[in-house]
Amino acid sequence: MNFKKGDEISLKIVDLAFGGVGIGKYTMPDGSGEIVVFVEKVVPGDEVLVSLTRIKKQFLEARLIKIEKASPERIAGRCKHFGVCGGCRWQFLDYKNQLKWKEKIVRDSLERIGEIANPPVEKIIGMKSPWFYRNKMEYSFGADANGLKLGFHPAKNFRDVFDLSECFLESEVSAQIAVKVKEWAVSRKITAYDPRVNEGILRNLIVREGKNTNEIMVNLFTNGKDFAQHNDFKRLIVENFPAVTSLYRTSVTIKRGNRTKVEEFHLEGNKTITETLKVAMEGGKDVTLKFDISPSAFFQPNTIGAQILYETVLNFANPTGAETVYDLFCGTGTIGMFMASGVKNVIGIELNESAVQSAKVNAVQNSIKNMEFICGDVDEMLPKLKGKADIIITDPPRSGIFPKTLQKILELKPAKWIYVSCNPTTLARDLKEAIKAGYKLVRAQPVDMFPHTYHIETVCELTL
What we know:
- By secondary structure, the chain is an alpha/beta fold.
- It has 3 domains: 8-69, CATH 2.40.50.140; 101-128 and 302-463, Vaccinia Virus protein VP39 (Rossmann fold, 3-Layer(aba) Sandwich); 136-270, CATH 2.40.50.1070.
- Helix content is 23%, strand content 32%.
- It has 9 helices and 21 strands.
- The strands form 4 sheets. Strands 8-7-6-9-10-11-12 form a 7-stranded mixed β-sheet. It has a 7-stranded mixed β-sheet with strand order 17-16-15-18-19-21-20, sandwiched between helices.
- It is globular, with a radius of gyration of 24 Å.
- The protein starts with 7 loop residues before the first strand and ends with a strand.
């Protein structure tokens, strides 16, 4: 059958792919078989009418026109912005079903891409409460014919901004701050920054929280160094939100032909906020670490989820106390710092210089003396290390481990390798090579750190 863009077909959705896209199978009228169709905004079990947008030999992509019969799994989204916002794309599934499909995606990826028969995937660990879990929210300013807006971007549209009236991922105080700042900006007739013409003032508003310490940081991003309402903004936050413990304004200056200039102005309170993470290790030992978070520092956006993830890593590693550990792609070093209390020494490697500096500060603050940090590319730094690693931890970006780097890791032949991944497809690709090199996948533990989204963390234990 010859398809063309715009053709309308009916089909039933049978599965979900990583990325949150629904998978349907269309039976050819001529009896020549089935073809896979990818559709967004659908739930397995939905019977839908779609319009084809992309034609390939092995698959089709389509746009949802209407749901002809809703799946028994489909529910109404809790948030009024669901369907517009680019954030919570899975609110049409109750949380138990979200977990079911995420676990299946990990298992399917390991089977299909990793070519691992009956992969040892453990039951996914979910959040006790899947709402109000984020410790950082970044709001964007925008404008249209109706005036200034402050909120989020619609899905796949980074030019527009919709006005936020509710969000169930952030805390109540974060939403209140955003609403108040928008009201203030409107009353002062301050314009939103327009990147298309590099004009306007207000760019972003970031609210960060210590979920275990109740400390709050507010940071207003503006265009250019000069900001006439500098003190007025300070008064607004100080008088209305006494819970805010750290206040900043960050200016971003863009001039054609020059490097973008970013300057932070500390307005009030502490220069950082503090967060604590507590991890229970096997054997009943608890490890609690304290982290200072500066305006530009990376920190896992889900505090409770991070504790679960790190606990899983430590228990999979199960060190005896005499090991040397390489923490690769270590970021700000949080995993390695928890590991340090139970091993001989830890060496962290990270390319991002600011992350390494934050890691060093936090290591000193937590009196960790058996961990060192190296700033550089893992591929270049690994051959320079002396001694043998007993345990290697890898937590690479979404793209996985670069083939050349993966080969160098395999050549080190650590007895135990803990692979932390935020992308089951690239994880499966890398595990396939590890197994070819003699490693055994002992277990894979999915961890849900971002309820109502398609994102999945997976911790894998590999041994020689």
